[in-house]
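Q&A log
Question type: sequence-to-structure
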Amino acid sequence: MKKRIIEKLTNTALFLEILLTVFLAIGIAIGLVDIVKYFVHISKASAVDSYGVFKQFLAHILLIVVGVEFMLMLISHSINSMLELILFVIARKMLIYADTMLDLVLGTIAIAILFIILKYLPVRSGDDYGDDGGAIYSASTTISRLIEQTGIKLPKDKGRTLGGLTFNLAEESTKPITEGSEFILGNIKLKVLKVTDGLIEKVAIEEISDDKDAKIEVDS
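Response status: OK
Response body:
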């Protein structure tokens, strides 16, 4: 009984997050219309007033970027997305509202710390391994970070993230994505471990052979 209640509350929370993301997307779309209006204000502003108008225009653009990053964080639930959101918030603060050198120095230090965290944050989900020995990774992990930190040879042209790569492989093979589906790419096996509402969350990666042939297979 308790497990069912927790499961229903979790599903409700996920639904509310999706609903909020939709509302956020609508708000961003409306905000894009205001960008066009800013062009009119900039063209009509005098030389004295143009600086203030353009500053407001830049603040509006960066706020929309923050909104987009917030959407990605709600969708992916990943630490990387959260850190990237904080990065854009700090950048907006520095560009628009930094009035003193101290503000700029503190902002620069904060950005440097975030870059260090993003670079050295482990991409694997702890020290977890799947039943077949494959290391488990978050689907939101970018392919470039996987290659940089693990040396795993994955194509960069088939998806920006591990989840995107797995999704594209499923599209190419015309197979549905389900928990337990396996995709073979050269000597790398990708196994979907967790799917929530059609969204891939965790993928296990295992090197299975030294075969370098480019091939894609699916085991359901």
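Response note: The longest helix spans residues 2-44.
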